[in-house]
Amino acid sequence: MFGGLALSLGLSSCVNDLDLKPNDPNLVDTSDPDFKANSLAICYSGIAVSGISGPGSSYVSDLDPGTSAYLRLIFTLNEFCTDEMIWIWPDAGVTDITACTWGSNNTLLQGAYYRLLGHIAICNQFLANTKDEHDAETIEMRAEARVLRAYSYYNMLDLFGQSSFITEEAATGEKPVQISRAELFNWVENELKDVVDNKLISENPLYGRVGLDGAEALLARLYLNGEVFSGTPRWADCQARCENIINRHKGGGFEGSGLANDYLYLFARDNDAYMPGGSNKAENEILFGIAFDADMTQSYGGPTFIISGTVSNTHYIPRQNYGTTAEWSCIRGRLQLAEKFYGLSSDTRDDLWVKGTLPAGTNPDGTTYNAEDYQDRFQGFTGDWATVGGNAIIKFTGRTRGNGPGGWDWTQNADGTYNCNFPATSFATTDQPIIRLADVYLMYAESYINGNVGNRQKALDYMNLVRRRAGAPNLGYADLNRQGIMDERARELYLESTRRSDLIRNKMFSGPTQIIWQYKGNIDNNEGTRISEHLNLYPIPYAVIAAQPDFKQNPGY
Predict the structure, then answer these.
(1) Among the four residues 55, 103, 341, 411, which has the most C-beta atoms within 10 Å?
(2) E strands, 256-409, where?
(3) Distance (Å, rounded) from C-alpha 218 to C-alpha 229?
(4) Is residue 18 within 8 Å of 176, Cβ to Cβ?
């Protein structure tokens, strides 16, 4: 994708040094012919890996490289506080996220804040060092860096609301300022509109790089949450962006929609075919994704974290069947997610799950599981490696596509058992989707439901298109409501770091219409309880306020 990653950025940060700004250009050899490629590569790798010296290194000091990996933090803060996923070990920091009982001293929140600002600083530096270059190649590279930076500012906007803010225009020594959520929304909107509407970025990017679809999909997601982020609904703007993307993908894939024909292949080892610039252009459903490789892009975050975390040694799951040597057994599905699939035996989106612990069905390797027993509730936090109960919710894998059982690359032995033909690796080669085309179809439908804009029939058709791809039956107009779209987004997008925002946007996370799920509000309460509305935003970490006392804390903390 790029040249070597030898460029040193010197972006360490600690509690007393939060001015993450473009570095002195003299620290970067801009005369190196590979300078731009190397620098832009670090803008991408800042999302994929913890540091440039292997999975144990970090761009940002004083943070555990594994726990504080960018995409691992985004997953943790968007999944474990919801009705979808639960972290079963009683670990400091993540237990509070799981129970929605966090405070401003939570170390994961500090890690997320620093990690996002660290990535913004990396992008700022690239933009500062290329500001005087106006050739076509550099203009496009700069547009990519701007979208990647906008993605980090989007995450600040979503998680923390008000944010530390600084761009490549900052003078040497200038400190970041804190801006409001509405101000940051406007900045991200204008940044993405400039890139998209002026077509500064490629419609056909190279593999692993963000292009026009990814940039416009991020803008659509911004508008989807417009009322929460800015106070002003932007449903019609969301729909318009969705239509642009959908129209560019029509003609290929499932029923000519541009969706991949096989849902689970989007999360497999060889899902690079569905990425921007991937080999299966007719089914390039992953509009914005981050590339990973078991040998070259190693991280304890990203798909490695998701695969290793969801593969469970208490559910009759041989880890090699999922293409991994790591079996962390620490992520389970909550009962409320399993309930979304009750009565939908034809829906392929849960086909990799191992439900309950009672043997009934048979895996290709001869191990057994209960194919439709969702009732095994997670029993509690013992602190043991083999904490029991709950469903093993597996979606991302190290499997490869093939003609064996379930559509995977298996070979049958003479005795009727099967061997997998894909390797089991410590780190994942599976790429991580950030935004998929299926999400765009559902964004259009939700904009109709919540904003009363667009076409009712089209909204229903788009929901049903996503369902039919999974083998689920069509819905009717009676299902075109808030609960219907939220259930469908849960079934389609679980483990993709969207659930927290979805719940908040639809007033189901907190407040008078909130829903209740296991352990919500109290880690000792299996049934869950209600939480305060101030938890719709995470707090600005205490260390940030201590270092810059002029920064304001979010209400309620």
Answers:
(1) 341
(2) 286-290, 331-333, 361-362, 368-369
(3) 14
(4) yes
Pairing of strands 432-436, 286-290: antiparallel
Per-residue model confidence (pLDDT) at position 360: 45
Distance between CA atoms of 552 and 116, rounded to whole angstroms?
18
Among 250, 192, 198, residue whose Cα is nearest residue 221: 192
CA dihedral (411, 413, 417, 421) positive or negative: negative
Tokens of 84: 């979808």
Judged by DSSP in three states, 310 sits in helix
pLDDT tens digits along 448-492: 999 999 999 999 999 999 999 999 999 999 999 999 999 999 999
Tens digit of each residue's pLDDT (9 = 90 or more) over 172-209: 788 899 999 999 999 999 999 999 999 999 999 999 99
Structure tokens at 88: 């079963």
Query: And the tokens for 212?
Result: 């026009």
Give backbone dihedrals phi and psi of 381, rounded to 5 degrees, phi first. Answer: -100, 100
The model's pLDDT over 248-277, given as tens digits with 9 standing for 90+, comes to: 999 999 999 999 999 999 999 999 999 999
